[in-house]
Specification:
With 216 residues, this protein is an alpha/beta fold. Helices cover 42% and strands 17% of the residues. It has one domain: Phosphoglycerate mutase-like (Rossmann fold, 3-Layer(aba) Sandwich).
Length: 216
Amino acid sequence: MTELLLVRHGQTDSNLHGRWQGWDGTPLNQQGEREAALIAHRLAQTEEAIAALYASPLRRAWQTAERIGEALNLSPVPHGGLKEINFGQISGITLDELRERFPGLHKRWTDKMDLTFAFPGGEQRAQFFQRVGEAMEEIVEGHPNQKVVVVAHGGTLRACLVHYLPTEFGQWWTYELGNCSLTWLAVREGRAKLLVLDDRTHLAEQGARMFSILTN
């Protein structure tokens, strides 16, 4: 059995203002740096050894993974299959802007079951789901009976959940995964069990104490 500890990257200014980032090289903001430190601290307390750390090479995920790697004494391994969906020409705008400026595209986007939908100059949903599924299978196959941390993006982690839990996550777009949240899957022979979903207790419970440590 392989255990996947799925971590969304820390907050960026684009997250804060509701802008779609896609493949943009947006860095963590101050809050995101703090969140990355907190999830790193939590993972360092894991009882069983963590064997590997994989991350999307996009800047915000990589920065988060670097902080986690420092805490775990592991070097992050970049994997292009873990990148967020490519929004193409829509990257950098908000949902309201999409609705106002591209009403036809917005209408198609709202049909979340339309896997043929593609962003202009970007990526098709079906291709994105396939890319993420193949990346996760590769990671799991490389680490039988080990615990692995994967740092990626909200869309990427939802695609991972759909891949392993297609029935439970049929409405993949409704599941919120907060910045630096922890989601935990146990995978055995292609079948998965969800252990933890969108856990952010480390941000709330340890936040005040850790912030004092980090800033003094």
